[in-house]
Design a protein that fits this description.
It comes from Achromobacter arsenitoxydans SY8. This protein has 829 residues and is mainly beta. The protein is built from 6 helices and 46 strands. Helix 2 runs antiparallel to helix 3. The N terminus is likely disordered.
């Protein structure tokens, strides 16, 4: 790979995409018709699906059936080994089709819910010893696709493929279908309808996915279970392209028992698209607000006739902007993957991605006067560009590679190992404001800054899993060891002298300004961190009772070098964390649970006596109720929690000591409730509803702030980035019959309660209610020869509401994103 890193120019592919989309809309019917050979098949009757599955091995036939019928079909692969089928042609209901496909075999399908089926051996058939391996990509697994918006399994909460109903902790999952239905451009937008998730400023800042969970605790991001870089000053971060993901999972609360050092609010795990056992082909063209032009493709399927090799290739190119002038949001992304499955018991997947971003972000500091508060000159326009064209930019190059390996020795023991290497390199330049002239209230003094950073992680996680019984008690026992090597660098330089001020109400750009050589270095650091941890977990079942017990011991070390002064600080930490949870599964689909979990996160620095700081520690008690009505494709989760973080840094106020030192006497407590319901309802209806309440308070602190000229303690103040109330609802509908069959409608509303923007609680961010909408049409419902062609229209902030997203200080406020409209033409075959 070329080591030079330069922003790229807009490519011809994306410059032409908007025009191509317009042309494709007028030519869709003849193009789709020409893509089909032979006479058009008559449309299937309501409730039927059309199949064309040839005779042959049963395993691939079941895979093809699940894809065509859009159902979740789960089974151990050994069940189908050596069995054949006569195939299936024509239009059938799911139940009839499965029965015919399985005719003559010792197997039958059991319906567990709407679009959810499990394959089982008939009682009269002899029982064979089968490896306990789940077929990924056939029906729902914790690591594969989901049909619709309701995920019923997760691999994040336990590191095993477990029903969400059985996990004694809150797990929220956003599926690929939900991401597409709402037209989400980023992880922040994908999680906009998830309770207890808050992104300051919403989706205005497209550079990062900064997300806070359960009371202002920053979330750490994982990809396929592996930790992603999180560098010094939050700079060395990867931003994952959502088009390359199958699902996004949020694990709420302390999670160190499985993942090591983490903040107590929880973590976000993103699951990549993996190779598929059945052919999958999709292309998209997208256009929208501010000249957006995007093209994407998603290809996958078997490589050989035996099905031992399969592949996936996801790619995307985008030229876009955030406003009518100066901004840019360009991306190039490619993610190849290859899976080798020599037997039903063994699987090896190689996967990775490369991404290059060039942005001129609209995100930038504006004063509170004119945004949050009144200004005698009026309101500062929402699309005001506060930077300097030709200087402001954000460039990032990132890549990742690794593998996922599984092997089942027998029906009891299996092993898993995953390895991932991730790297990013970025540069940010901005002309950032720091002072509003108090006389004219319009002249914005600015400084020119440049930040450069890298972030690198190497993760290796090795696990052994045993599934066995001790009398009437069942066990799923997990033991593992993981290793993390994380390195990041950060340089920062700026200059104030000679930087032209900006009139925020009548801006003039392009005045003489300093150059790169005039910047003064302020920060130059390198930090190396290593962590290794041993962990064990047992999921114990007895009747309807499930007891989850887990423990972990971590060793972490770090070395931070100040390359400006030559100084070096080292630190070694160790910690034990655990989780204990009890769940009871009722026959009516209710599952009450209670759990206690802990977390830790190393804290850099030393106190007045040069003692290194201890890790911050988190603990949570959570009780809740999950509900999966029998025979339905839905899941409801209600939880209540109290979360406490200890050893928070606070000012050292010991008499006789100079100011500027810190101690670890601070504490933050968050209490809240969260409710989420998702359902694929009958007759084409989909529903998402959520509500979150949190009361996050600084319960111990020696820090003081000057408020209206008077010193005030932070103790008792509300935690910022933690709105007390958040609520959302999304309702989708697809017309099931008549002349409008194939038409899809969707509408959503999001309420974000008022929030504090600063620790002193002086900047009150008002509440806001936003409306989103979607419209789609499946051309295949109108004409069978156009099967696979669809058009969707998405609008976020439909009524173009102007609101303040966040304020960190009185000179650092940002607006929330305005209305954005996207039109997407997709063809799948």
């Amino acid at each position: 790979m070329n080591s030079s890193f330069k922003p790229f120019a807009a490519g011809p592919l994306c410059r032409a995409a908007a025009g191509a989309l317009c042309a494709a809309l007028t030519m869709a019917a003849p193009l789709a018709a020409q893509a089909q050979s032979g006479a058009a098949s008559p449309p299937a009757a309501a409730g039927l699906a059309r199949f064309d599955i040839p005779a042959g091995p049963l395993g691939p036939a079941l895979t093809a059936f699940a894809g065509a019928a859009r159902i979740n079909l789960s089974f151990d692969p050994g069940l189908a080994e050596g069995l054949t089928t006569a195939g299936l042609q024509g239009a059938w209901t799911v139940d009839e089709g499965l029965a015919r496909l399985l005719a003559g075999t010792p197997l039958a399908a059991r319906r567990d819910g709407a679009n959810v089926y499990t394959l089982r051996r008939l009682p009269s058939a002899p029982t064979a010893v089968l490896p306990a391996v789940r077929v990924e990509g056939v029906g729902e697994s914790a690591y594969g696709p989901v049909a619709g918006i309701v995920a019923l399994r997760s691999g994040t909460g336990t590191k095993t493929d477990t029903p969400i109903l059985e996990i004694p902790q809150t797990v929220n999952v956003v599926t690929r279908d939900e991401i597409a239905a709402r037209g989400a451009r980023s992880i922040v937008e994908a999680l906009a309808y998830t309770p207890g998730v808050y992104a300051p400023g919403g989706s205005t800042d497209l550079r990062y996915d900064n997300i806070y969970l359960r009371g202002g605790f920053g979330a750490r991001n994982n990809l396929d279970g592996a930790r992603l870089p999180f560098g010094a000053y939050s700079f060395g971060m990867l931003q994952i392209e959502p088009y390359g993901l199958e699902r996004i999972e949020v694990l709420k609360g302390p999670s160190s028992v499985l993942y090591g050092q983490n903040n107590p609010g929880g973590l976000i795990n993103m699951v990549s698209k993996l190779p598929t056992a059945t052919p999958h082909r999709e292309i998209e063209l997208q256009t929208g607000s501010y000249g957006r032009a995007q093209a994407a493709l998603d290809l996958g399927g078997p490589v050989d006739e035996a099905g031992q090799w399969s592949y996936r290739l996801v790619a995307l190119a985008r030229d876009a902007a955030q406003s009518s002038r100066y901004t840019e949001d360009d991306r190039r992304f490619v993610a190849p993957a290859l899976t080798w499955r020599p037997s039903a018991a063994t699987s090896l997947s190689l996967l990775g991605f490369y991404q290059k971003d060039h942005q001129v972000p609209l995100y930038g500091n504006l004063p509170a006067a004119g945004t949050l508060y009144s200004n005698p000159n009026g309101r500062i326009p929402r699309d005001r560009f506060p930077g300097e064209p030709g200087w402001d930019r954000y460039d990032r190059e990132q890549y990742s590679a690794g593998y996922l390996f599984t092997h089942a020795f027998n029906d009891t023991w299996s092993v898993k190992q995953q390895l991932r290497y991730s790297h990013m390199r970025g540069e940010a330049r901005t002309a950032v404001g720091y002072l509003l002239n108090p006389v004219d209230m319009r002249t914005w003094s600015r400084t020119m800054t440049r930040g450069q950073g890298t972030g690198t992680t190497l993760n290796v996680d090795t696990q052994a899993i045993a599934r066995f019984d001790t009398g009437p008690v069942g066990h799923e026992f997990l033991v593992g060891f993981d290793y993390l090597d994380m390195r990041d660098t950060y340089k920062f330089a700026n200059v104030i002298a000679g930087v032209p001020a900006l009139d925020l109400f009548d801006p003039v750009y392009g005045r003489p300004r300093p150059g790169l050589k005039d910047l003064i270095p302020r920060i130059d650091t390198r930090q190396d961190t290593e962590q290794s941890g041993f962990y064990a977990q047992d999921q114990i079942s007895y009747g309807g009772w499930l007891l989850t017990l887990g423990g972990r011991y971590d060793m972490a070390s770090s070395a931070t070098r100040n390359r400006l002064t030559g100084g070096k600080t080292t630190q070694d930490d160790s910690a034990f964390t655990g989780r204990a949870g009890l769940t009871y599964l009722m026959d009516n689909g209710l599952a009450p649970y209670v759990a206690y979990s802990t977390s830790f996160a190393p804290t850099g620095g030393t106190d007045f006596e040069s003692n290194p700081f201890r890790p911050t520690e988190g603990r949570q008690i959570e009780a809740g109720l999950k509900y999966q009505p029998p025979g339905s494709d839905s899941l409801v989760t209600l939880s209540a929690y109290q979360l406490t973080q200890d050893n928070v840094l606070t000012s050292d106020t010991t008499p006789g000591r100079p100011p500027g030192f810190q101690t670890q006497t601070g504490q933050i407590r968050a209490r809240g409730i969260e409710l989420e319901g998702k359902a694929n309802l009958a007759r084409g209806w989909d529903l998402i509803a959520s509500y979150g309440y949190v009361d996050a308070v600084v319960t111990r602190s020696a820090n003081t702030d000057i408020v209206n000229g008077v010193p005030e303690s932070r103790q008792g103040k509300k935690q910022y980035y933690a709105p007390a109330h958040q609520a959302s609802a999304w309702l989708g509908y697809k017309v099931q019959g008549g002349p409008l069959q194939g038409l899809g409608l969707g509408a959503g509303v999001r309420y974000i309660g008022s929030d504090w923007g600063d620790p002193a609680n002086t900047l009150r961010i008002p509440a806001v209610t936003l409306v989103d909408a979607a419209l789609s049409y499946d051309f295949g419902q109108m004409q069978p020869s156009m099967r696979g062609l669809s058009l969707s229209l998405n609008a976020s902030n439909l009524f173009d509401r102007t609101y303040v997203g966040t304020c960190v200080t009185a000179t650092a406020c940002t607006y929330g994103a305005g209305r954005l409209v996207l039109a997407t033409l997709k063809y799948s075959w």
